[in-house]
Amino acid sequence: MSHNIENVSATKRKISVTIEAAEVSKTIDGTIREYGKNLSLNGFRKGKVPASVIEKRFSDEVYNYATENLINSTINKIFDEEKIRPVSRVNFEDKEDAQKLTRGSDFAFVCSFEVLPEIDLPKDFSEYSVKVESDEVTEEDIENFTTQIRRSMATLEDMNEDRYPMDGDVLLVDVEGSYEGNPVPGMGAQNFLMQLSDNKDATNKEIDALVRTAKAGEEVKGTMVCPDDYANAEMRGKTIDIKIKLHKIHKQILPEFDDEFAKKVGFSDLETLKQTIEAQVKHAKSAQVRNKAQQQLLDSITEKFDYELPESMVQKALSNYMMEARNHLGQQNMDPEEMLKAIASLKEDGQEIAKRQTKAHVFLLAVAFRENISVSGQEVDMYVRQLAMETRQQYEQVRDHVLQAGMVGEIQERIMAGKALDLIFEQAKHEQA
Q1: For burial by CB atoms within 10 Å, which of 6, 22, 67, 375 has the most?
Q2: What confidence score (pLDDT) does residue 95 get?
Q3: What is the C-alpha separation between 244 and 174, in angstroms, rounded?
Q4: Is the Cβ–Cβ distance between 231 and 186 less than 8 Å?
Q5: Any alpha helices (H) in 179-269, and if so which ranges?
Q6: Among candidates 430, 192, 156, which has minimal Cα distance to 293?
Q7: How many degrees, rounded to 5, is the angle at CA 39 between CA 35 and CA 42?
Q8: Residue 99, Cβ neighbours under 10 Å: how many?
Q9: Cα 105 vs. chain centroid, distance in angstroms?
Q10: What does the pLDDT look like over 148-164, one tens digit per residue?
Q11: How confident is the model at residue 254 (pLDDT cuts 50, 70, 90)?
């Protein structure tokens, strides 16, 4: 067997392979033996059908299997010998017209694929620094988390008082957004429940402020600036008209935070619940601080490097982004035609986001490969179990989907990238923010 590797670009490779006739015949013979092990034909015992009969009667199947097996084994051997790590599917040239193996003849094929670009990585990352915020937990952090738990079991009481909405109230409203007299896709909801907050950094602060000027049964009008991350890119930054109809004001009745409440949520007593809450808040705060610092560090490092990105990885990231956008817009009961327009407007933003994500992922994989970072089967299994918990699905269903969709390699890459980022973060200098 002989092969030639062509560097088409920094991320593209083409391999031309020629396999000698003797190896072709050997592969055909081996495939016939495997095919005949459990074969039964009239006049022959199971597994005892002569090779010549099998080759004649089942020629198409045997030669298809032999061709596929020889190509796969040859490609894998070349990858091992040349230490090549493809990051895309292997595509075969002229696949539609590809010839099957022929006894006594050489067999040749050409395939192409993408690889990671070569990056001149630093020896280590000790020259880089990152500001890390304090992960100290405050009483306010614990109180906020406790309130969230209590709100999850709260009841609503209709307010019949003649008053304006206040912090903590849960309102039943209709919201309608329009621009130059036309409805704004995704900026409308009927019988929508919203809770007022004293958080001055609330996302919908204009709507929050406007609805506070109405009493139950009243309709109010105002304006708001469409946010920079709004789904329809064409509407971002534009001032739109808002109309709100306030149907009802509900007062949220929080349960008492006592031993009875602790038992309702699965704890033996209130003290045990408090200890668990404090531990969870500490863990969440520490993870949040670390994740934020790691992302800032990664951004600061990768912006200093310039390298070609594998197009297949960019397209995969874009596909994931657009799928999430479709799911998000689909939950807003948008008109199908308007939803298609909104999705189309997001594609340009999606391209840039996909490129940034791919650039970071490629860098981390380059570090992981250099450092010989590996991933065990147990780690993949733990990742799948965590995914099942987050999506509230049965572990077996998620596992089967991962296997059927061929996602194991993708999951391994994600875990490798995460380990590489941990390594970079540990080597970098940490400064107090």
Answers
A1: 67
A2: 54
A3: 6
A4: yes
A5: 205-211, 259-264
A6: 430
A7: 140
A8: 12
A9: 47
A10: 999 889 999 988 889 99
A11: very high
Structure-token match 């800032």, residue found: 296
* Chain centre distance of CA 321: 8
Q: Phi first, then psi: what are they for 258, rounded to 5°?
A: -140, -170
Q: Indicate the pTM of the whole model.
A: 0.82
**Dist CA 259 CA 262 (whole Å):** 5
Residue-by-residue DSSP string for 336-393: HHHHHHHHHHHHHHHHHHHHHHHHHHHHHHHHHHHTT----HHHHHHHHHHHHHHHT-
Instruction: With beta carbons less than 8 A apart as the criterion, state whether 126 and 427 touch.
Output: yes
The token pair that represents 49 in the structure block: 């059908």
Rounded Cα gap, residues 88 and 309, in angstroms: 12
pLDDT, average across residues 89-108: 80
Q: What is the residue whose two structure tokens read 């340009």?
A: 348
The DSSP-derived string for 137-150 is: PPHHHHHHHHHHHH
**CA–CA distances in Å: residue 132 to residues 141, 292, 360, 425:** 18, 8, 20, 11
By three-state DSSP, how is residue 10 classified? Answer: coil
Q: What are phi and psi of 13, to 5 degrees?
A: -130, 145
- What does residue 167 show for φ and ψ, rounded to 5 degrees? -50, 135
Residue with tokens 């049964």: 217
* 134, 111 contact by CB (below 8 A): no
- 131 DSSP assignment: E
Cα 376 from chain centroid (whole Å): 20
Q: Smallest Cα–Cα separation from 3: which of 66, 78, 114, 100? A: 78
Residue 194 above 70 pLDDT? Answer: yes
- What would the DSSP string read from start to end of 408-427? HHHHHHHHHHHHHHHHHHHH
Range with top average pLDDT, 184-193, 341-350, 410-419: 410-419
Count of positions (residues) in the chain: 433
Span 423-433, pLDDT tens digits: 999 999 999 98
Cβ distance 115 to 11 under 8 Å? yes
pLDDT band of residue 292 (cuts 50, 70, 90) is: very high
The sign of the CA dihedral 331, 334, 336, 337 is negative
190-193: which pairs have CB atoms within 8 A and are 24 or more residues apart? 191/247
Q: Quote the Cα angle for 63-64-70, to 5°.
A: 85
Residue listed under structure tokens 């039964």:
40
Q: How far apart are CA 285 and CA 279, in angstroms?
A: 10
Report the pLDDT averaged over residues 12-18: 96
Q: Which amino acid is at 133?
A: E
